[in-house]
Design the sequence.
């Protein structure tokens, strides 16, 4: 009788614990809601480090919702180059050639300015994760002293740059602390560590992170946000060819 | 418009530029940059010998930064060729324009670049500058960035759809500055301003494909029969999309009103291309590209040029063959890229190939090296035994 009672208590406790732990999908949704303001304007820079030193690229980025973004590079060498993302379409504008190139297919994986970020990485961020991946709670682990859930993502189809990803999500703040990105073969392609966050209007936006392309030797790219505005008002046609070629 | 200056004039221009540079920091709403490009080249001179030459260009750019609605740029190139001879510098206005965005349209005035059609090397839709010639060197990282004096209106009618109208006045035909005072040159001649080119294009997207159609009334094109009495009509269409591979297709005609049928047959141009990139794990990205230029009304049988000079001249103007191919293989990873490309003339089975290396080693600094050679018999369009038949170029570019 005592054994049955003890078993019942354990079952009840386990059920209560399970009820407190949100599902992987719920964690992803909360993380996206926490880190993606409806509209934003960001000034930042990328510092790419390799064996010869650091190269810096500065930019201004505008975003609306999860699928519209425009990045304009402001550093001397790349001045005037722009990247526009509108849904699944991505366009790159080169001012000297006066040419807009629509990037499709595998070209989205090209490196941006020789950095460890690809065009996909730069323009999608955490965009619509559950549209492209199934999520699974794989356990818990501490990252830089913060208790995190580990969420495993597996691609729903072939049109994503990484077949699987592991995201460490801070249990208290509901923001990602680090991300590992893998190929179909299981090979680790990239790692991203988020080191600082910017708190603004209730959002926690990653403001300093380091991306390492594991396919390159001795290379990493630091991504810094210097200034950020939320609740920015964009005209109806802001994310268009007109703005891209302006 | 290119102005060649004498030494005193060059010195005066240099002093003016220095003054301009000194004043620029006072203007808060602009940004100044300088790009210095320096190259040294050795090439076969066609007489079993080797010639050496050098080229240095400094580009001063001043760009407005104060307004999102009004944009201006002035960029001036100063080029000194042949390091050994110390000739006077060549000044050329690379860009000089004002672009204003009104609520419904954008206006551009000045020397600017508009990019029509699709294609990296061959682009029949590029009616404003022409992207079917074989003259651009294969060893350049940007094949075509020419600009023209123009007035253009851009009218968007959708997120990725627009109409663009352009008028392009003729250039000066002799220097407007003289070597000695009085300046400007009293003997300068100009084309008739009524000989202005004018064109229109419409661009839209549907079914994952970009559609572009346009027309240029071209006074400039002497080859196609433009005369004092009038120019030629140049309609074109251009498509670009993705289906397993990136692809583009353009077709253009040049029609002389005095003989529309024959000029259409002779000048019909079709360009097409496919491209794809591969991302092998642990290896550089591999890019493949193949473009072609087809001119059905041109020669499909090989001509044997009488001399190397004749073949050289044919290359510089418009070679008469009906088919040319541009293959390219690139390897890129991080800050370095290696590009192998070529031009192949299947009609006479001759061609040229280049190996280009680029390395962005430090902030703003790019090192370049290129080796190119021609492969073909003496009478072919590309021949191994002519001036420039083999060449090696080393250089550096620095932006600050």
Sequence:
């Amino acid at each position: 009788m005592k054994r049955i009672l003890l078993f019942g208590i354990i079952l009840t406790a386990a059920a209560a614990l399970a009820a407190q732990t949100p599902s992987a999908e719920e964690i992803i949704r909360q993380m996206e809601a926490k880190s993606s303001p409806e509209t934003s304007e960001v000034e930042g820079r990328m510092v790419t480090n390799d064996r010869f030193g650091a190269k810096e690229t500065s930019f201004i980025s505008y975003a609306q919702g999860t699928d519209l973004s425009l990045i304009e590079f402001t550093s001397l060498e790349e001045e005037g180059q722009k990247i526009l993302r509108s849904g699944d379409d991505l366009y790159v504008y080169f001012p000297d050639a006066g040419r807009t190139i629509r990037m499709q297919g595998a070209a989205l994986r090209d490196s941006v300015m020789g950095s460890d970020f690809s065009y996909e990485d730069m323009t999608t961020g955490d965009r619509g994760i559950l549209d492209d991946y199934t999520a699974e709670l794989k356990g818990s682990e501490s990252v830089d002293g913060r208790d995190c859930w580990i969420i495993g993502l597996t691609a729903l189809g072939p049109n994503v740059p990484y077949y699987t990803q592991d995201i460490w999500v801070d249990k208290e703040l509901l923001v990602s602390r680090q991300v590992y990105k893998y190929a179909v073969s299981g090979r680790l392609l990239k790692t991203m560590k988020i080191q600082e966050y910017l708190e603004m209007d209730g959002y926690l936006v990653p403001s300093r992170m380091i991306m390492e392309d594991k396919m390159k030797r001795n290379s990493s790219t630091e991504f810094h946000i210097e200034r950020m505005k939320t609740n920015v008002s964009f005209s109806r046609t802001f994310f268009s060819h007109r703005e891209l070629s302006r | 418009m290119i102005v060649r200056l004498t030494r005193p004039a060059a010195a005066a221009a240099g002093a003016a530029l220095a003054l301009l540079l000194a004043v620029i920091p006072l203007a808060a709403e602009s940004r100044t940059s300088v790009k210095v490009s320096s190259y040294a080249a050795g090439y076969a001179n066609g007489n079993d010998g080797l010639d050496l030459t050098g080229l240095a260009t400094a580009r001063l750019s001043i760009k407005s930064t104060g307004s999102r609605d009004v944009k201006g740029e002035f960029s001036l190139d100063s080029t000194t060729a042949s390091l050994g001879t110390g000739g006077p510098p060549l000044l050329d206005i690379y860009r000089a324009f004002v672009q204003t965005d009104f609520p419904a349209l954008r206006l551009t005035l000045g020397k600017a670049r508009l990019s029509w059609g699709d294609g990296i090397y061959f682009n029949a839709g590029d009616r404003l500058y022409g992207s079917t010639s074989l003259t651009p060197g294969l060893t350049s990282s940007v094949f075509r960035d020419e600009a023209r004096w123009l007035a253009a209106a851009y009218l968007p009618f959708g997120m990725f759809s627009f109409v663009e109208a352009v008028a392009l006045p003729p250039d000066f035909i002799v220097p407007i500055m003289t070597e000695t005072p009085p300046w400007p040159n009293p003997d300068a001649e100009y084309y008739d301003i009524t000989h202005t080119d004018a064109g229109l294009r419409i661009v839209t997207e549907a079914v994952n494909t970009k559609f572009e159609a346009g027309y240029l009334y071209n006074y400039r094109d002497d080859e196609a029969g433009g005369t004092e009495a009038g120019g030629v009509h140049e309609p074109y269409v251009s498509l670009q999309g993705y289906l397993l591979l990136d692809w583009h297709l353009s077709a253009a005609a040049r029609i002389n009103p005095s003989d529309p049928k024959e000029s259409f047959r002779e000048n019909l141009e079709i360009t097409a291309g496919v491209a794809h990139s591969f991302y092998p794990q642990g290896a550089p990205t591999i890019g493949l590209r193949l473009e072609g230029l087809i001119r059905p009304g041109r020669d499909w049988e090989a001509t044997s040029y009488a001399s190397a000079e004749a073949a050289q001249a044919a290359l510089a103007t418009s070679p008469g063959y009906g088919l040319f191919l541009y293959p390219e293989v690139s390897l890129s990873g991080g800050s370095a890229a290696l590009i192998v490309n070529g031009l192949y003339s299947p009609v006479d089975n001759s061609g040229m190939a280049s190996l280009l290396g680029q390395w962005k080693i430090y902030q703003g600094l790019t090192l370049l090296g290129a080796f190119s050679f021609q492969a073909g018999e003496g009478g072919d369009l590309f021949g191994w035994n002519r001036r420039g038949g083999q060449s090696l170029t080393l250089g550096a570019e620095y932006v600050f």
Notes: The longest strand of chain A covers residues 188-200.
